[in-house]
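Morning. Coffee machine broken again, so started the prediction first thing and wrote up yesterday's gels while waiting. Chain of 164 residues, entered below exactly as on the submission form.
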Amino acid sequence: MWLLGYVPLHWFRRLVFTLAGVKLGQKSTIHIGCRFYEPKNVLIGEGTIIGDHATLDGRAPITIGNHVDMASEVMIFNSQHDIDSEGFDPIEKPVTIEDYVFVGPRAIILPGVTIGKGAVIAAAAVVTKDVPAMTVVGGVPAREIRKRNVRELNYRLGRFRLFQ
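Came back before lunch.
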């Protein structure tokens, strides 16, 4: 199925991912090269952009809100191994990304994280814990940089281009 993510026709990728079980809101865009593990557990809101070559784990629920801008090569994982378990048992936890979040290129979001409305995740940040609304975080592990200086978010996303 990952190969179908490379078809340069947006409408076809949208159809294939929807048939595979991704719940995809109106005017949302999945750019080329995205990978989903267990797509049936992925819910993407309206007007959201999933950047090229993103990875969405989906072994536990992933909920992405409306008008979220997820840049290129972002990885969202919601399954990891318990390193203190003799059986190296899996631990699966949901990930929630609320409305109007921006996730920068190559950021990694780990299991059990909730990212609040309007938060910004800097490029290459590794998010290991919840991010409050309207907070800018960055680094490894991600730490608060500052709060956003905006009261109301009302922009609309949903653009797509042929080879994106």
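The mean pLDDT is 92. Going to sketch it on the whiteboard this afternoon.
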